[in-house]
Specification:
Shape: globular
Strand content: 15-25%
CATH superfamily of the largest domain: P-loop containing nucleotide triphosphate hydrolases
Number of domains: 2
Order of helices and strands: HHEHEHEEEHEEEHEHHHEHHEHH
InterPro entries: ATPase_AAA-3, CbbQ/NirQ/NorQ/GpvN, ChlI/MoxR_AAA_lid, P-loop_NTPase
Pfam families: AAA_3 (PF07726), AAA_lid_2 (PF17863)
CATH topology of the largest domain: Rossmann fold
Number of strands: 11
Largest sheet: 5 strands, parallel
GO molecular function, one term: ATP binding
Protein name: AAA family ATPase
Family: Belongs to the MoxR family.
Length: 314
């Protein structure tokens, strides 16, 4: 746990040289990486989503690929394809951009459902099946997908099955006035960050991911997080609550948050901090709730206020 805490602190500092503010977002990305999960960034263009993904890849020494999703993008443009090499007289496989350790899928909701589904196996199984052959993807493997929640013309909303594959969903948000001024100031001066060596090797990340799974969750804390997930299924403003995959996501993220803090056990505060990122995209609100302006995050906050957190010794 001490090593995870040291690495997380160093990565925060490195990314902080490129991204101004956004410490909470950086922590969520690190938690998702340690859980071997994937991230959905939903925000307007120009808020630093691509820069954040590149900064994370550079700090980890991981290979990085960006896929710009468009309506004419084909599944083979993502996964790769087999072609006939006339010189060798045989078929050869040409890997697509999904064969990288950190993959940024920009504006994922602009691609057709057929192309979006090409990511499902890669995100869940860390493999790609083409022409009857299953090929493993490099590890660690992290998909950071972005989508614009404002411009909906010409988009294809992600189905619930694919939304559920993302471990967390977060929004970058606009910077404060002071942060935006610092962004402008940094852009006027040359940066030497790109020349710096990675904070940690990609191979080391795999061992840290294994260590996170050993973080202990006591029975009372485990019952607490399950109660939160189950409460979403009975709430009058929620048509479809979190599935058991949501409970697993919440548990793994709480483990990662505890490990990043240098602890070998999960506290109720770890669970509370991860409820919104882990569950807000897994809920479908009723039509009446949406008309009243309710949001999944606000409902989750009310659920947290209603369920008592376990207290040590009680």
């Amino acid at each position: 746990m001490a090593e995870i805490h040291r690495v997380a602190t160093a990565i925060r500092a490195r990314i902080g040289q490129i991204i101004v503010g956004k410490e909470a977002i950086i922590d969520l990305l690190l938690a998702a990486l340690l859980c071997e999960g994937h991230v959905l960034l939903e925000d307007v263009p120009g808020t630093g989503k691509t820069t954040l993904a590149r900064a994370l890849a550079g700090a980890l020494g991981c290979t990085f690929q960006r896929i710009q999703f468009t309506p004419d993008l084909l599944p083979s443009d993502v996964t790769g394809l087999s072609f006939y090499n006339q010189k060798l007289g045989e078929f050869q496989f040409r890997p697509g951009p999904i064969f990288a350790q950190i993959v940024l899928t920009d504006e994922i909701n602009r691609a057709t459902p057929r192309t979006q589904s090409a990511l499902l196996e890669a995100m869940q199984e860390r493999t790609v099946s083409i022409d009857g052959e299953t090929r493993p993807l490099p590890r660690p493997f992290l998909v950071i997908a972005t989508q614009n929640p404002i411009e909906l013309e010409g988009t294809f909303p992600l189905p619930e099955a694919q939304l559920d594959r993302f471990l967390i969903k977060v929004a970058m948000g606009y910077p404060s006035a002071a942060e935006e001024e610092e962004i402008v100031q940094r852009s006027l001066a040359p940066s030497a960050v790109a020349a710096q060596p990675p904070v940690v090797a990609a191979e080391t990340v795999r061992s840290l991911q294994e260590a996170v799974r050993s973080v202990a969750i006591s029975p009372p804390v485990r019952q607490y997080l399950v109660a939160i997930a189950r409460a979403t299924r009975d709430h009058p403003d929620i048509e479809l609550g979190a599935s058991p995959r949501g409970s697993l996501a919440l548990a793994h993220l709480a483990q990662a948050r505890a490990a990043m803090a240098g602890r070998s056990f999960v506290l109720p505060d770890d669970v509370k901090a991860m409820v919104a990122p882990a569950l807000n995209h897994r809920l479908i609100l009723t039509a009446e709730a949406r008309l009243r302006g309710q949001t999944a995050t606000a409902i989750l906050e009310r659920i947290l206020a209603q369920i008592p957190a376990p207290v040590e010794g009680v």
